[in-house]
């Protein structure tokens, strides 16, 4: 299944929201509360989020990418500034989701490469347990730094992983 990765356009917000919610349902059912995943306004809230982010059009703030296959968006990614001042990273990976049907095709890798510059230290939070995602990040030289939190929004336990800047 060939795919292309490109910067999103404002018109992609609806499809990005659908990928966001669908992949949460595929990956986090049983980890996130059902009430959150089944909320009737979840897709609308994600669409509003993506609409706002894409309207800002400030690449220095957020870098976004979508993966498309057969004219359909099958994956999304977004990096941005560190979560907090004095954080361990220069850049933070906030979003990297792809449909289960495209796992193993290179979509995730291409999305990661599109939104993260290897020359800057990057951090992310990954759900725990989520062995497939954790293995993907380890393959990409991210290391769990021992920091763990429970997300206030969804109650998911998360592990922070950091990739140090590389000077290739």
Please specify the SSE layout and strand pairing:
Elements: E1 4-6, H1 13-28, H2 34-37, H3 42-56, E2 63-69, E3 72-80, E4 91-98, H4 107-115, E5 122-127, H5 131-139, E6 143-150, E7 157-163
Parallel strand pairs: 4-5
Antiparallel strand pairs: 1-2, 2-3, 3-4, 5-7, 6-7
Helix pairs in contact: 1-3
Report on the structure:
InterPro entries: GNAT_dom. A seven-stranded mixed β-sheet has the order 1-2-3-4-5-7-6, with helices on both faces. 32% of the residues lie in helices and 29% in strands. It has five helices and seven strands; from the N terminus they run βαααβββαβαββ. The longest helix is centred in the first third of the chain and has 16 residues, at 13-28. With 168 residues, it is of the alpha+beta class. It has helices at 13-28, 34-37, 42-56, 107-115, 131-139, and strands spanning 4-6, 63-69, 72-80, 91-98, 122-127, 143-150, 157-163. Helix 1 crosses helix 3. The chain has a single domain (4-163), classed as 3-Layer(aba) Sandwich (Aminopeptidase), CATH 3.40.630.
